[in-house]
Each structure stands twice: as structure tokens, then as C-alpha cells.
Amino acid sequence: MRANHGNNPQPNQKIGIGHSNLKLENSGEKTSPTPSFQRHFLSGVSLIFTTAILLLAGRAIANNAVLRSIFSCQAQGLGGVIPTITVWYQQGTNLSFIPAGETIRKVWLNDPSQVTLDFDGPMCMQFGQASGATGDCQNSAANVIQLRRIAKLNIPGLPNTNNTLLTVITDAQGQPKLYTFRVLYGDDAPEYHTLAVFADPPPPGESCVRVAR
């Protein structure tokens, strides 16, 4: 009687499945990263780059905060609002007409007891309510006014106020323009160092149109 060896392997017979598993475990070969690992790795790298970009953008925005801009028509009050400019003790505040391409011809400051003015060129100035002017009124050609806050001076006749009015007349390619700015006194850290006046965008006056509500 012959024994049935169909389902019983011989001692020297190799079992395919067991041998395959043994080779996988003992071969020592490195396996490639799984798709899930790759996705997590790429997501992490993307997050790092995104964070770096946001930090750089935030720093750029913070640096740009030192400059404030206004259109010419807005600075003239054509929109129905008097523009303001703030001065601090720690630093001067520049009022620049360079972006608008305009030349300053004359300047009035109603209360000079707390603010000094300086210019980048010859200038015709008038302080307080006096009728006389100082400076070169024939060849005024400045483009920038620097305002600096000082300790209040005792000037007879001037009321004690928490702001004053700065009036500026400019020349824009032969056309005079009148600007008025409410000068405010800041006691905290400076928020900006330059207020730049830009030419109106086309079509003219659109940026100053008041919308009825």
C-alpha cells in the first residue's frame, strides 16, 4: 500500500510562500517610502515654506507702515473730509509732494507754538495771524515739508488747542492747488514718518466722489 504524499512536503522540498516571506524579512534590502509617508513629508515641507513666506510678507507690511499715501483731491478736501497729519516728539513727520510732481509755493501754520517746519528748498512761510511772510516768496521751490513737535512755547495771543491747521499752496504744472491739513499732536510711539501726496488716478476726481447713502 503506497502512502499519499501529495499534501505532505518532503524534507528537502522548499515551500514557496514561507521561503518568499523569509527572503523579504532577511534580505536586508531597504524598502521605498510608502505613498502615505511621502504625502505627509511633502505637506510638512509645504507648511514650512508657507510659514516663511507669511513671515516675510508680514515684515514687509510692517516696514511699509512707515509710509502713508493720499490722493491730491483727497488732500485738498474735495471729498468733504479734512486730511490729518500727526506729529510726534521722537521724530519728524514728512509731508511730501514729490509723488504728485508739485512744487510748494507758500505755507501757513496757524499755531507755531508746538510745531516747527523745515523744507528741502527755499520757502515762503507765514505763522499765526500775522500778515507778514518770511523766507523767499519769489523763488519758493520746495517739495517736502518736515514737521516736528516741540514742547509748547508761550506765545501771547495764541489759544491753547490740541491741534492746528497747516495750509499749503502748490504749483502743479502752472496750476495752483490749495491744501489744508489738520495737524494732530501724538504722545505715543510714531506710527509713520511720511505722508505722501500722489496725483489723482484717472478719471480725475473719481477717488474723491462722495457716495450718497
Overview of this protein structure:
With 213 residues, this protein is an alpha/beta fold. The chain has 2 domains: 33-64; 67-208. Helix content is 21%, strand content 30%. It contains 3 helices and 11 strands, in the order H-H-E-H-E-E-E-E-E-E-E-E-E-E. The chain is globular, with a radius of gyration of 37 Å.
Average pLDDT works out at: 76
Spatial gap, N to C terminus: 110 Å
Low-confidence stretches: 11-27, 59-63
Structural class assignment: alpha/beta
Task: Name a few traits of the molecule.
about 210 residues; alpha/beta; 2 domains; 6-stranded mixed β-sheet; 5-stranded mixed β-sheet; 11 strands
Describe, in short, the structure shown.
This protein is α/β, with parallel strands linked by helices.
Secondary structure blueprint with pairings:
Blueprint lengths: L15 H11 L8 H30 L2 E5 H4 L8 E4 L5 E4 L6 E7 L5 E5 L4 E4 L6 E2 L8 E6 L13 E10 L2 E11 L8 E5 L15
Parallel strand pairs: 1-11, 2-10, 3-11, 4-6
Antiparallel strand pairs: 3-8, 4-9, 5-8, 6-7, 9-10
